[in-house]
Design brief:
The chain contains three helices and six strands. By secondary structure, it is of the alpha+beta class. It folds into three domains: about 70 residues; about 50 residues; about 55 residues, Head domain of nucleotide exchange factor GrpE (Nucleotide Exchange Factor Grpe, Chain A, domain 2). It has a three-stranded antiparallel sheet with strand order 1-4-5. It has a three-stranded mixed sheet with strand order 2-6-3, with no helix packed on it.
């Protein structure tokens, strides 16, 4: 009986040892899984932080680029306009000693043509008004007068101030007199 008890004790001890080993294996597996999840969490968190930093840098860079673009937007126009200013200075200098008014007029016309060419190259166009029908999209009526001929009824009779479009957008309406 004593031997039987010892054998049972040994069996129970063996079973306890096996259960303990199984528990240790389960604990080790759980610890490995926890370590694996912690590593995944750290990797994702690191990726998230890097992505946020990249986005913040991108946002700051685009804000700076927009500010520079706005700050220097007129640079091309001014650069195109400087030769015209030079020509005006030459014209003013020549007017001091000029006796031929026709030559001065031709010089001013050349400068005017240069200005119009520069505006055209930058997408600016004159709004046509001569005998055109009145259109509130492009024209501003400053007054109406009786139409000199029946064909000019509801058409532009006179333009007091030219209007301009830039890239097909009205930047200044033509001020016109309309025949009634």
């Amino acid at each position: 009986m004593k031997q039987e008890k010892e054998t049972k004790v040994e069996e129970v001890a063996k079973e306890a040892q096996e259960v303990k080993q199984e528990a240790q294996e389960v604990e080790n597996q759980a610890a490995e899984e926890v370590n694996e999840w912690e590593k995944k969490y750290k990797d994702l968190n690191d990726s998230h932080l890097r992505l946020m930093a990249d986005f913040d840098n991108y946002r700051k860079r685009t804000i700076k680029e927009k500010a520079d673009l706005i700050k220097n937007a007129g640079e091309r126009i001014i650069t195109d306009f400087l030769p015209i200013v030079d020509n005006f200075e030459r014209a003013l200098e020549s007017m001091k000693t000029a006796e031929d008014v026709d030559a001065v007029r031709q010089g001013v016309e050349l400068i005017y043509n240069q200005v119009m060419s520069m505006l055209k190259s930058n997408g600016v166009a004159v709004i046509e008004t001569e005998n055109a029908p009145f259109d509130t999209e492009f024209h501003e009526a400053i007054t109406t007068i009786p139409a000199p001929t029946p064909e000019l009824k509801d058409k532009i009779v006179d333009c007091t101030t030219k209007g301009y479009t830039m890239n097909e957008k009205v930047i200044r309406h033509s001020k016109v007199v309309v025949g009634a």
